[in-house]
Amino acid sequence: MLRVLQHFLPIRTALLFFGETVILTLLVGLGMSRHLWDSLRGIRGENYRELRLALGHLGMGELDAFWICILSAFLVALLCQVAIGFNQLYEFRVSNSSTERSRRLVESAGAGIALCLVCVSLTHAWDLRRVLNFPGLTYTQKLGSLVGSLVLGFLVLYMWRTLYHGMMRRVNLNLRVLILGSREPAHELAQLILDQPEAGFEVFGMVPESPREEGEGAGSSIDTPSVSFSPMGADVVSGSMASPRTEALILDTLPLTARKRNGEATSLESLEGEGSLLALARDNQVDVLVVALEDRRLALPIQDLLHCRLGGRDVREREEIYEQVTGKIAVAAMRPSYLIFNEGFRRHPWIDLIKRGTDVALSLLILAVTSPLILLTAIAVALDSPGPILFRQERVGQDGILFTLRKFRSMRVDAESATGPVWSSEDDPRITRVGKFIRMTRLDELPQLFNVLRGSMSLVGPRPERQHFVDELAEQIPYYNLRHIVKPGLTGWAQINYPYGSTVEDALHKLQYDLFYIKNHSVLLDLSVLFSTIKTVLLRQGT
To answer: Is this model's pTM higher than 0.85 or not?
Structure first.
Protein backbone atom coordinates (compact mmCIF):
# COMPACT_ATOMS: atom_id res chain seq x y z
CA MET A 1 0.00 0.00 0.00
CA LEU A 2 1.41 3.38 -1.04
CA ARG A 3 1.21 6.51 1.06
CA VAL A 4 0.80 9.61 -1.11
CA LEU A 5 0.55 12.91 0.77
CA GLN A 6 -0.69 11.12 3.91
CA HIS A 7 -3.29 9.25 1.82
CA PHE A 8 -3.21 5.43 1.71
CA LEU A 9 -3.53 3.98 -1.78
CA PRO A 10 -3.36 0.26 -2.69
CA ILE A 11 -0.52 -0.45 -5.12
CA ARG A 12 -2.74 -2.16 -7.71
CA THR A 13 -5.16 0.79 -7.70
CA ALA A 14 -2.27 3.23 -8.15
CA LEU A 15 -0.85 1.17 -11.04
CA LEU A 16 -4.27 1.01 -12.72
CA PHE A 17 -4.85 4.76 -12.33
CA PHE A 18 -1.43 5.87 -13.54
CA GLY A 19 -1.47 3.33 -16.37
CA GLU A 20 -4.76 4.75 -17.65
CA THR A 21 -3.44 8.30 -17.30
CA VAL A 22 -0.48 7.44 -19.52
CA ILE A 23 -2.62 5.59 -22.09
CA LEU A 24 -5.20 8.36 -22.45
CA THR A 25 -2.57 11.11 -22.48
CA LEU A 26 -0.58 9.40 -25.24
CA LEU A 27 -3.57 8.55 -27.43
CA VAL A 28 -5.28 11.92 -27.09
CA GLY A 29 -1.96 13.79 -27.34
CA LEU A 30 -0.98 12.00 -30.54
CA GLY A 31 -4.46 12.28 -32.02
CA MET A 32 -4.79 15.98 -31.28
CA SER A 33 -1.32 16.91 -32.52
CA ARG A 34 -1.32 15.09 -35.89
CA HIS A 35 -1.59 18.40 -37.74
CA LEU A 36 1.81 19.39 -36.30
CA TRP A 37 3.78 16.25 -37.19
CA ASP A 38 4.86 17.20 -40.73
CA SER A 39 5.83 20.70 -39.67
CA LEU A 40 7.88 19.42 -36.72
CA ARG A 41 9.81 17.13 -39.09
CA GLY A 42 10.50 20.02 -41.49
CA ILE A 43 8.01 18.85 -44.14
CA ARG A 44 5.99 21.64 -45.73
CA GLY A 45 2.67 20.08 -46.62
CA GLU A 46 -0.33 21.61 -48.32
CA ASN A 47 -1.68 23.02 -45.02
CA TYR A 48 1.67 24.40 -43.87
CA ARG A 49 0.85 28.03 -44.69
CA GLU A 50 -2.51 27.95 -42.91
CA LEU A 51 -0.90 26.32 -39.86
CA ARG A 52 1.86 28.93 -39.67
CA LEU A 53 -0.69 31.75 -39.89
CA ALA A 54 -2.83 30.20 -37.16
CA LEU A 55 0.13 29.66 -34.83
CA GLY A 56 1.56 33.09 -35.62
CA HIS A 57 -1.72 34.65 -34.60
CA LEU A 58 -1.37 32.86 -31.24
CA GLY A 59 2.26 33.93 -30.90
CA MET A 60 3.78 30.43 -30.72
CA GLY A 61 5.82 28.01 -32.79
CA GLU A 62 5.17 24.38 -33.70
CA LEU A 63 7.11 22.98 -30.73
CA ASP A 64 5.25 25.20 -28.24
CA ALA A 65 1.96 24.16 -29.82
CA PHE A 66 2.93 20.48 -29.56
CA TRP A 67 3.64 20.67 -25.82
CA ILE A 68 0.40 22.59 -25.21
CA CYS A 69 -1.40 19.74 -27.01
CA ILE A 70 0.29 17.19 -24.72
CA LEU A 71 -0.54 19.19 -21.57
CA SER A 72 -4.15 19.56 -22.71
CA ALA A 73 -4.26 15.82 -23.46
CA PHE A 74 -3.14 15.15 -19.87
CA LEU A 75 -5.96 17.35 -18.54
CA VAL A 76 -8.43 15.56 -20.83
CA ALA A 77 -7.19 12.22 -19.43
CA LEU A 78 -7.83 13.43 -15.86
CA LEU A 79 -11.34 14.60 -16.78
CA CYS A 80 -12.09 11.18 -18.26
CA GLN A 81 -10.75 9.53 -15.12
CA VAL A 82 -13.11 11.64 -13.04
CA ALA A 83 -15.96 10.05 -15.01
CA ILE A 84 -14.39 6.61 -14.53
CA GLY A 85 -14.10 7.25 -10.79
CA PHE A 86 -17.75 8.32 -10.59
CA ASN A 87 -18.64 4.90 -11.97
CA GLN A 88 -16.57 3.21 -9.21
CA LEU A 89 -14.23 1.57 -11.70
CA TYR A 90 -11.24 2.15 -9.43
CA GLU A 91 -12.86 -0.10 -6.82
CA PHE A 92 -11.67 -3.63 -7.54
CA ARG A 93 -14.80 -5.28 -6.15
CA VAL A 94 -16.69 -3.57 -9.02
CA SER A 95 -14.03 -3.60 -11.72
CA ASN A 96 -13.25 -7.31 -11.28
CA SER A 97 -16.62 -8.23 -12.80
CA SER A 98 -16.31 -8.28 -16.60
CA THR A 99 -20.03 -7.48 -17.00
CA GLU A 100 -19.93 -4.50 -14.63
CA ARG A 101 -16.63 -3.37 -16.10
CA SER A 102 -18.03 -3.31 -19.64
CA ARG A 103 -21.28 -1.58 -18.70
CA ARG A 104 -19.71 1.05 -16.51
CA LEU A 105 -16.87 1.75 -18.94
CA VAL A 106 -19.44 2.55 -21.65
CA GLU A 107 -21.20 4.91 -19.24
CA SER A 108 -17.85 6.45 -18.29
CA ALA A 109 -16.98 6.96 -21.97
CA GLY A 110 -20.21 8.83 -22.62
CA ALA A 111 -19.88 10.98 -19.51
CA GLY A 112 -16.15 11.58 -20.05
CA ILE A 113 -16.54 12.64 -23.69
CA ALA A 114 -19.42 14.98 -22.78
CA LEU A 115 -17.43 16.51 -19.90
CA CYS A 116 -14.36 17.05 -22.09
CA LEU A 117 -16.41 18.65 -24.89
CA VAL A 118 -18.02 21.06 -22.41
CA CYS A 119 -14.67 22.02 -20.87
CA VAL A 120 -12.96 22.48 -24.27
CA SER A 121 -15.89 24.61 -25.44
CA LEU A 122 -15.63 26.79 -22.34
CA THR A 123 -11.89 27.32 -22.75
CA HIS A 124 -12.49 28.21 -26.42
CA ALA A 125 -15.20 30.71 -25.47
CA TRP A 126 -12.97 32.28 -22.79
CA ASP A 127 -9.96 32.30 -25.17
CA LEU A 128 -7.69 30.34 -22.80
CA ARG A 129 -4.82 29.56 -25.16
CA ARG A 130 -2.71 27.27 -22.96
CA VAL A 131 -5.33 25.26 -21.06
CA LEU A 132 -7.40 22.56 -22.81
CA ASN A 133 -6.47 24.06 -26.15
CA PHE A 134 -5.07 22.41 -29.26
CA PRO A 135 -3.34 25.18 -31.27
CA GLY A 136 -3.64 25.02 -35.03
CA LEU A 137 -7.11 23.45 -35.07
CA THR A 138 -10.40 25.24 -35.63
CA TYR A 139 -13.16 24.82 -33.06
CA THR A 140 -15.02 22.17 -35.10
CA GLN A 141 -11.76 20.34 -35.84
CA LYS A 142 -10.98 20.26 -32.11
CA LEU A 143 -14.32 18.72 -31.21
CA GLY A 144 -14.25 16.17 -34.05
CA SER A 145 -10.69 15.05 -33.37
CA LEU A 146 -11.28 14.94 -29.62
CA VAL A 147 -14.31 12.66 -29.95
CA GLY A 148 -12.42 10.32 -32.28
CA SER A 149 -9.36 10.23 -30.00
CA LEU A 150 -11.44 9.55 -26.88
CA VAL A 151 -13.49 6.78 -28.52
CA LEU A 152 -10.22 5.09 -29.49
CA GLY A 153 -8.85 5.79 -26.00
CA PHE A 154 -11.76 4.09 -24.21
CA LEU A 155 -11.54 1.09 -26.54
CA VAL A 156 -7.87 0.72 -25.63
CA LEU A 157 -8.78 1.20 -21.93
CA TYR A 158 -11.21 -1.71 -22.14
CA MET A 159 -8.48 -3.96 -23.54
CA TRP A 160 -6.00 -2.62 -20.97
CA ARG A 161 -8.35 -3.33 -18.07
CA THR A 162 -9.06 -6.86 -19.32
CA LEU A 163 -5.31 -7.51 -19.55
CA TYR A 164 -4.62 -5.79 -16.20
CA HIS A 165 -7.19 -7.79 -14.23
CA GLY A 166 -5.90 -10.98 -15.83
CA MET A 167 -2.38 -10.06 -14.69
CA MET A 168 -3.58 -9.24 -11.16
CA ARG A 169 -5.07 -12.73 -10.87
CA ARG A 170 -1.62 -14.16 -11.61
CA VAL A 171 0.62 -11.61 -9.90
CA ASN A 172 0.03 -11.10 -6.19
CA LEU A 173 0.87 -7.53 -5.14
CA ASN A 174 -0.63 -7.91 -1.66
CA LEU A 175 1.61 -7.60 1.39
CA ARG A 176 1.90 -10.98 3.11
CA VAL A 177 1.12 -10.58 6.80
CA LEU A 178 2.05 -12.72 9.81
CA ILE A 179 -0.10 -11.81 12.82
CA LEU A 180 1.43 -12.28 16.26
CA GLY A 181 -1.47 -13.29 18.48
CA SER A 182 -4.43 -15.65 18.47
CA ARG A 183 -7.05 -14.00 20.65
CA GLU A 184 -9.77 -11.41 20.01
CA PRO A 185 -7.58 -8.53 18.68
CA ALA A 186 -5.75 -10.88 16.30
CA HIS A 187 -8.93 -12.60 15.09
CA GLU A 188 -10.67 -9.28 14.45
CA LEU A 189 -7.74 -7.94 12.42
CA ALA A 190 -7.51 -11.17 10.41
CA GLN A 191 -11.25 -11.05 9.68
CA LEU A 192 -11.03 -7.42 8.54
CA ILE A 193 -8.21 -8.25 6.12
CA LEU A 194 -10.09 -11.29 4.79
CA ASP A 195 -13.23 -9.21 4.27
CA GLN A 196 -11.41 -6.39 2.45
CA PRO A 197 -8.89 -7.91 0.01
CA GLU A 198 -8.80 -4.65 -1.95
CA ALA A 199 -6.86 -3.08 0.96
CA GLY A 200 -3.71 -4.83 -0.29
CA PHE A 201 -2.97 -7.29 2.54
CA GLU A 202 -2.99 -11.09 2.72
CA VAL A 203 -2.86 -13.05 5.99
CA PHE A 204 -0.35 -15.91 5.96
CA GLY A 205 -1.11 -17.06 9.48
CA MET A 206 -1.37 -16.26 13.19
CA VAL A 207 1.31 -17.20 15.73
CA PRO A 208 -0.51 -18.47 18.84
CA GLU A 209 -0.22 -17.01 22.28
CA SER A 210 -0.17 -19.40 25.21
CA PRO A 211 -3.57 -20.76 26.31
CA ARG A 212 -5.35 -18.36 28.66
CA GLU A 213 -4.72 -19.28 32.28
CA GLU A 214 -7.66 -19.72 34.60
CA GLY A 215 -8.67 -16.38 36.07
CA GLU A 216 -6.42 -14.42 33.69
CA GLY A 217 -7.92 -11.15 32.52
CA ALA A 218 -7.77 -9.61 29.13
CA GLY A 219 -4.84 -7.45 30.07
CA SER A 220 -4.98 -3.69 30.09
CA SER A 221 -2.75 -0.70 30.10
CA ILE A 222 -2.93 2.07 32.67
CA ASP A 223 -3.41 4.68 29.97
CA THR A 224 -6.11 2.83 28.01
CA PRO A 225 -9.56 4.33 28.65
CA SER A 226 -12.50 2.03 29.17
CA VAL A 227 -15.42 2.07 26.78
CA SER A 228 -18.77 0.95 28.12
CA PHE A 229 -20.17 -0.28 24.82
CA SER A 230 -18.69 -2.32 22.01
CA PRO A 231 -20.03 -1.86 18.49
CA MET A 232 -18.88 -4.41 15.96
CA GLY A 233 -15.69 -3.29 14.32
CA ALA A 234 -14.88 -0.74 17.02
CA ASP A 235 -12.08 -2.91 18.32
CA VAL A 236 -13.47 -3.58 21.80
CA VAL A 237 -15.70 -6.61 21.82
CA SER A 238 -17.26 -8.99 24.27
CA GLY A 239 -16.93 -12.66 23.49
CA SER A 240 -14.81 -14.27 20.85
CA MET A 241 -14.16 -12.71 17.44
CA ALA A 242 -12.92 -16.04 16.09
CA SER A 243 -14.53 -17.54 13.00
CA PRO A 244 -13.78 -20.79 11.18
CA ARG A 245 -11.79 -18.82 8.59
CA THR A 246 -9.60 -17.10 11.19
CA GLU A 247 -9.27 -20.22 13.36
CA ALA A 248 -7.80 -22.01 10.34
CA LEU A 249 -5.05 -19.37 10.17
CA ILE A 250 -3.57 -20.27 13.57
CA LEU A 251 -0.21 -21.93 12.95
CA ASP A 252 1.07 -25.05 14.66
CA THR A 253 4.22 -23.39 15.93
CA LEU A 254 5.90 -22.39 19.19
CA PRO A 255 3.61 -20.07 21.23
CA LEU A 256 4.76 -16.50 21.77
CA THR A 257 5.03 -16.83 25.55
CA ALA A 258 7.58 -19.60 25.01
CA ARG A 259 9.57 -17.28 22.74
CA LYS A 260 9.74 -14.42 25.23
CA ARG A 261 13.18 -14.16 26.78
CA ASN A 262 13.31 -11.78 29.73
CA GLY A 263 16.91 -10.65 29.44
CA GLU A 264 18.21 -14.17 29.02
CA ALA A 265 21.26 -14.76 26.87
CA THR A 266 20.18 -15.96 23.43
CA SER A 267 22.13 -17.68 20.74
CA LEU A 268 22.08 -16.73 17.06
CA GLU A 269 20.66 -20.19 16.35
CA SER A 270 17.61 -19.59 18.55
CA LEU A 271 16.90 -16.26 16.83
CA GLU A 272 17.57 -17.34 13.23
CA GLY A 273 17.36 -21.12 13.20
CA GLU A 274 14.49 -23.42 12.37
CA GLY A 275 11.35 -22.52 14.32
CA SER A 276 12.36 -18.89 14.93
CA LEU A 277 10.09 -16.02 13.90
CA LEU A 278 12.65 -14.79 11.37
CA ALA A 279 12.91 -18.24 9.76
CA LEU A 280 9.10 -18.53 9.70
CA ALA A 281 8.80 -15.15 7.99
CA ARG A 282 11.67 -15.77 5.58
CA ASP A 283 10.58 -19.26 4.53
CA ASN A 284 7.00 -18.11 3.81
CA GLN A 285 7.77 -14.78 2.07
CA VAL A 286 6.18 -12.76 4.88
CA ASP A 287 6.50 -8.99 4.32
CA VAL A 288 5.02 -7.66 7.55
CA LEU A 289 4.81 -8.95 11.13
CA VAL A 290 1.87 -7.42 12.96
CA VAL A 291 1.78 -7.34 16.77
CA ALA A 292 -1.86 -8.02 17.77
CA LEU A 293 -1.46 -9.35 21.31
CA GLU A 294 -4.08 -9.25 24.00
CA ASP A 295 -1.42 -8.52 26.65
CA ARG A 296 2.04 -7.55 25.45
CA ARG A 297 3.54 -7.81 28.92
CA LEU A 298 3.08 -11.57 28.89
CA ALA A 299 3.82 -12.55 25.30
CA LEU A 300 5.82 -9.92 23.40
CA PRO A 301 9.05 -11.54 22.11
CA ILE A 302 11.21 -8.42 21.97
CA GLN A 303 14.46 -10.03 20.85
CA ASP A 304 12.79 -12.06 18.09
CA LEU A 305 11.00 -8.96 16.75
CA LEU A 306 14.21 -6.94 16.86
CA HIS A 307 15.99 -9.65 14.90
CA CYS A 308 13.15 -9.77 12.35
CA ARG A 309 13.31 -5.99 11.96
CA LEU A 310 17.08 -6.05 11.44
CA GLY A 311 16.63 -9.01 9.10
CA GLY A 312 14.62 -6.90 6.65
CA ARG A 313 11.07 -7.71 7.79
CA ASP A 314 8.67 -4.87 8.58
CA VAL A 315 7.20 -4.95 12.11
CA ARG A 316 4.03 -2.93 12.78
CA GLU A 317 1.43 -2.46 15.45
CA ARG A 318 -2.04 -3.84 14.93
CA GLU A 319 -3.55 -0.35 15.12
CA GLU A 320 -1.53 0.87 12.13
CA ILE A 321 -2.76 -1.95 9.88
CA TYR A 322 -6.29 -1.48 11.23
CA GLU A 323 -6.15 2.17 10.10
CA GLN A 324 -4.99 1.31 6.60
CA VAL A 325 -7.64 -1.39 6.13
CA THR A 326 -10.64 0.43 7.64
CA GLY A 327 -9.81 4.13 7.20
CA LYS A 328 -10.45 4.83 10.89
CA ILE A 329 -8.58 4.77 14.18
CA ALA A 330 -9.23 1.77 16.43
CA VAL A 331 -10.68 2.37 19.88
CA ALA A 332 -7.73 0.46 21.36
CA ALA A 333 -5.43 3.06 19.79
CA MET A 334 -7.28 5.93 21.45
CA ARG A 335 -4.82 6.17 24.34
CA PRO A 336 -2.36 8.96 25.22
CA SER A 337 0.77 7.01 24.25
CA TYR A 338 -0.53 6.25 20.74
CA LEU A 339 -1.83 9.77 20.12
CA ILE A 340 1.37 11.40 21.41
CA PHE A 341 4.09 9.25 19.85
CA ASN A 342 2.43 8.05 16.64
CA GLU A 343 3.11 9.79 13.36
CA GLY A 344 0.41 12.21 12.35
CA PHE A 345 -1.79 14.81 14.08
CA ARG A 346 0.47 17.53 12.70
CA ARG A 347 -0.59 21.17 12.43
CA HIS A 348 1.50 23.52 10.34
CA PRO A 349 0.79 27.19 9.52
CA TRP A 350 1.49 26.64 5.80
CA ILE A 351 -0.92 23.72 5.61
CA ASP A 352 -3.59 25.80 7.37
CA LEU A 353 -2.95 28.67 4.92
CA ILE A 354 -3.27 26.39 1.87
CA LYS A 355 -6.45 24.83 3.28
CA ARG A 356 -7.93 28.27 3.97
CA GLY A 357 -7.14 29.50 0.46
CA THR A 358 -8.68 26.36 -1.04
CA ASP A 359 -11.79 26.77 1.12
CA VAL A 360 -12.35 30.37 0.01
CA ALA A 361 -11.71 29.70 -3.69
CA LEU A 362 -13.91 26.59 -3.89
CA SER A 363 -16.68 28.16 -1.79
CA LEU A 364 -16.89 31.16 -4.13
CA LEU A 365 -16.91 28.81 -7.14
CA ILE A 366 -19.66 26.60 -5.66
CA LEU A 367 -21.74 29.67 -4.73
CA ALA A 368 -21.42 31.01 -8.28
CA VAL A 369 -22.44 27.69 -9.83
CA THR A 370 -25.29 26.95 -7.41
CA SER A 371 -26.72 30.49 -7.03
CA PRO A 372 -29.85 29.65 -9.11
CA LEU A 373 -30.45 26.56 -6.92
CA ILE A 374 -29.98 28.64 -3.77
CA LEU A 375 -32.63 31.13 -4.97
CA LEU A 376 -35.10 28.37 -5.94
CA THR A 377 -34.56 26.55 -2.63
CA ALA A 378 -35.19 29.74 -0.65
CA ILE A 379 -38.48 30.31 -2.52
CA ALA A 380 -39.56 26.67 -2.01
CA VAL A 381 -38.85 26.77 1.76
CA ALA A 382 -40.78 30.05 2.13
CA LEU A 383 -43.83 28.68 0.27
CA ASP A 384 -43.85 25.25 1.93
CA SER A 385 -44.33 26.15 5.60
CA PRO A 386 -44.46 29.25 7.83
CA GLY A 387 -41.24 30.40 9.41
CA PRO A 388 -37.84 31.80 8.46
CA ILE A 389 -36.05 30.58 5.34
CA LEU A 390 -32.74 30.06 7.12
CA PHE A 391 -32.26 27.94 10.23
CA ARG A 392 -29.69 29.31 12.67
CA GLN A 393 -28.20 27.29 15.51
CA GLU A 394 -25.14 27.46 17.74
CA ARG A 395 -22.58 24.71 17.11
CA VAL A 396 -19.20 23.91 18.62
CA GLY A 397 -16.32 24.90 16.37
CA GLN A 398 -12.53 24.75 16.42
CA ASP A 399 -11.01 24.81 19.94
CA GLY A 400 -14.52 24.58 21.42
CA ILE A 401 -15.52 28.08 20.27
CA LEU A 402 -19.25 28.45 19.54
CA PHE A 403 -20.42 29.81 16.19
CA THR A 404 -23.78 30.24 14.44
CA LEU A 405 -24.40 27.66 11.73
CA ARG A 406 -26.78 28.52 8.89
CA LYS A 407 -28.82 26.04 6.87
CA PHE A 408 -32.03 26.14 4.87
CA ARG A 409 -34.83 25.29 7.28
CA SER A 410 -36.00 21.71 6.71
CA MET A 411 -38.15 21.22 9.85
CA ARG A 412 -41.18 22.86 11.41
CA VAL A 413 -40.46 25.97 13.46
CA ASP A 414 -41.68 24.24 16.67
CA ALA A 415 -39.64 21.08 16.02
CA GLU A 416 -38.09 20.96 19.54
CA SER A 417 -40.59 22.93 21.56
CA ALA A 418 -41.91 19.82 23.31
CA THR A 419 -38.85 17.56 23.37
CA GLY A 420 -35.87 19.86 23.75
CA PRO A 421 -32.60 19.01 21.96
CA VAL A 422 -32.87 15.58 20.31
CA TRP A 423 -31.05 13.91 17.43
CA SER A 424 -32.95 13.87 14.18
CA SER A 425 -33.76 10.50 12.65
CA GLU A 426 -33.82 9.33 9.04
CA ASP A 427 -37.64 9.52 8.75
CA ASP A 428 -38.15 12.31 11.27
CA PRO A 429 -41.84 13.42 11.32
CA ARG A 430 -40.74 17.01 12.05
CA ILE A 431 -39.24 17.33 8.56
CA THR A 432 -41.33 19.29 6.04
CA ARG A 433 -42.10 18.15 2.48
CA VAL A 434 -39.53 20.49 0.94
CA GLY A 435 -37.19 19.71 3.83
CA LYS A 436 -37.17 16.03 2.93
CA PHE A 437 -36.13 16.84 -0.64
CA ILE A 438 -33.43 19.40 0.22
CA ARG A 439 -31.97 17.03 2.82
CA MET A 440 -31.85 14.19 0.32
CA THR A 441 -30.12 16.40 -2.28
CA ARG A 442 -27.97 18.24 0.35
CA LEU A 443 -29.32 21.60 -0.83
CA ASP A 444 -30.03 22.52 2.80
CA GLU A 445 -26.27 22.63 3.45
CA LEU A 446 -25.45 25.33 0.85
CA PRO A 447 -25.79 28.35 3.22
CA GLN A 448 -22.93 26.86 5.25
CA LEU A 449 -20.65 28.06 2.47
CA PHE A 450 -21.00 31.50 4.06
CA ASN A 451 -19.78 29.98 7.33
CA VAL A 452 -16.77 28.71 5.38
CA LEU A 453 -16.11 32.19 3.94
CA ARG A 454 -16.36 33.72 7.43
CA GLY A 455 -13.74 31.26 8.67
CA SER A 456 -15.81 29.41 11.29
CA MET A 457 -15.96 26.26 9.12
CA SER A 458 -13.96 24.48 6.43
CA LEU A 459 -15.19 22.56 3.40
CA VAL A 460 -13.81 19.31 4.86
CA GLY A 461 -13.66 18.39 8.53
CA PRO A 462 -15.67 16.78 11.34
CA ARG A 463 -19.32 17.80 11.26
CA PRO A 464 -20.14 20.38 13.99
CA GLU A 465 -22.40 19.32 16.86
CA ARG A 466 -24.49 21.25 19.35
CA GLN A 467 -23.02 21.99 22.79
CA HIS A 468 -25.69 19.82 24.46
CA PHE A 469 -24.67 16.74 22.47
CA VAL A 470 -20.94 17.49 22.76
CA ASP A 471 -21.17 17.57 26.57
CA GLU A 472 -23.22 14.36 26.56
CA LEU A 473 -20.89 12.48 24.21
CA ALA A 474 -17.68 13.73 25.85
CA GLU A 475 -18.80 12.10 29.12
CA GLN A 476 -19.26 8.71 27.44
CA ILE A 477 -16.59 8.61 24.71
CA PRO A 478 -12.90 9.09 25.58
CA TYR A 479 -11.13 11.86 23.67
CA TYR A 480 -14.32 13.02 21.96
CA ASN A 481 -13.20 16.66 22.22
CA LEU A 482 -10.10 15.91 20.11
CA ARG A 483 -12.30 16.37 17.04
CA HIS A 484 -12.42 20.10 17.88
CA ILE A 485 -8.71 20.71 17.23
CA VAL A 486 -9.59 21.43 13.58
CA LYS A 487 -12.37 23.46 11.99
CA PRO A 488 -15.67 21.63 11.47
CA GLY A 489 -16.53 20.86 7.88
CA LEU A 490 -19.37 21.07 5.41
CA THR A 491 -18.57 17.42 4.66
CA GLY A 492 -16.12 14.99 6.18
CA TRP A 493 -14.36 11.63 6.13
CA ALA A 494 -16.94 10.22 8.55
CA GLN A 495 -19.86 11.40 6.38
CA ILE A 496 -18.66 9.57 3.26
CA ASN A 497 -17.74 6.37 5.11
CA TYR A 498 -20.50 5.92 7.69
CA PRO A 499 -24.29 6.09 7.29
CA TYR A 500 -26.52 8.49 9.16
CA GLY A 501 -26.59 7.71 12.88
CA SER A 502 -28.25 9.04 16.02
CA THR A 503 -26.82 6.93 18.85
CA VAL A 504 -23.74 7.03 21.06
CA GLU A 505 -22.34 3.99 19.23
CA ASP A 506 -22.75 5.85 15.93
CA ALA A 507 -20.93 8.83 17.44
CA LEU A 508 -18.06 6.53 18.45
CA HIS A 509 -17.73 5.14 14.93
CA LYS A 510 -17.76 8.65 13.47
CA LEU A 511 -15.16 9.79 15.98
CA GLN A 512 -12.86 7.02 14.78
CA TYR A 513 -13.20 8.33 11.20
CA ASP A 514 -12.80 11.95 12.33
CA LEU A 515 -9.58 11.17 14.21
CA PHE A 516 -8.25 9.28 11.18
CA TYR A 517 -8.91 12.40 9.08
CA ILE A 518 -7.20 14.69 11.62
CA LYS A 519 -4.22 12.32 11.94
CA ASN A 520 -3.73 11.91 8.16
CA HIS A 521 -4.95 15.28 6.93
CA SER A 522 -3.61 16.32 3.53
CA VAL A 523 -4.70 18.18 0.41
CA LEU A 524 -5.14 14.87 -1.39
CA LEU A 525 -7.39 13.51 1.36
CA ASP A 526 -9.50 16.69 1.24
CA LEU A 527 -9.88 16.36 -2.54
CA SER A 528 -10.82 12.70 -2.11
CA VAL A 529 -13.54 13.62 0.40
CA LEU A 530 -14.92 16.38 -1.84
CA PHE A 531 -14.94 14.07 -4.87
CA SER A 532 -16.78 11.35 -2.91
CA THR A 533 -19.27 13.91 -1.59
CA ILE A 534 -20.07 15.17 -5.09
CA LYS A 535 -20.49 11.58 -6.27
CA THR A 536 -22.82 10.88 -3.34
CA VAL A 537 -24.95 13.94 -4.05
CA LEU A 538 -25.19 13.42 -7.82
CA LEU A 539 -25.73 9.65 -7.70
CA ARG A 540 -27.65 9.67 -4.39
CA GLN A 541 -25.33 7.06 -2.93
CA GLY A 542 -24.06 6.63 0.60
CA THR A 543 -25.06 8.89 3.46
So the answer is: no
**What confidence score (pLDDT) does residue 273 get?**
57
Residues of the chain under the 50 pLDDT cut: 212-239, 262-263, 265, 542-543
Q: Which of 439, 445, 385 is nearest to 415 (CA)?
A: 385
pLDDT score for 244? 85
Q: Please state the φ and ψ torsions of residue 102, each to the nearest 5 degrees.
A: -65, -50
With a CB cutoff of 8 Å and minimum separation 6, the contacts of 401 are none
- CA 206 distance to own-chain centroid: 29
Residues β-bridged to residue 391: 407
Q: Of 38, 45, 36, give the one whose Cα is nearest residue 63.
A: 36
39 neighbors 62 (Cβ within 8 angstroms): yes
CA–CA distances in Å: residue 346 to residues 296, 338, 356, 401: 28, 14, 16, 21
Check if the beta carbon of residue 193 is closer than 8 Å to that of residue 201.
Answer: yes
Q: CA-CA distance, 247 to 244, in Å (whole number)?
A: 5
CA distances from 165 to 89, 100, 169, 170 (A): 12, 13, 6, 9
Q: How far apart are CA 327 and CA 493, in angstroms?
A: 9
Sequence letter at residue 462:
P
Give the count of beta carbons closer than 10 Å to the beta carbon of residue 167. Answer: 12
Q: Is 150 exposed, middle or buried (0-12, 13-18, 19+ CB in 10 A)?
A: buried
Check residue 239 and give its pLDDT: 42
For 398-433, what is each residue's pLDDT tens digit?
Answer: 999 999 999 999 888 876 666 666 666 666 778 888
Distance of alpha carbon 292 from the chain centroid:
25
Q: In terms of DSSP bridges, do strands 489-491 and 458-460 run parallel, antiparallel, or are they unpaired?
A: parallel
pLDDT tens, position by position, 51-86: 777 777 777 888 888 999 999 999 999 999 999 988
Hey, what's the torsion of the CAs at 136, 139, 140, 141, to 10 degrees? 20
Strand partners, 372: none
CB atoms within 10 A of CB 2: 12
CA angle 319, 323, 327 (to 5 degrees): 160
pLDDT of the residue at 178: 92
Residue-wise DSSP of 93-131: HHHTSHHHHHHHHHHHHHHHHHHHHHHHHHHHHTT-SSS
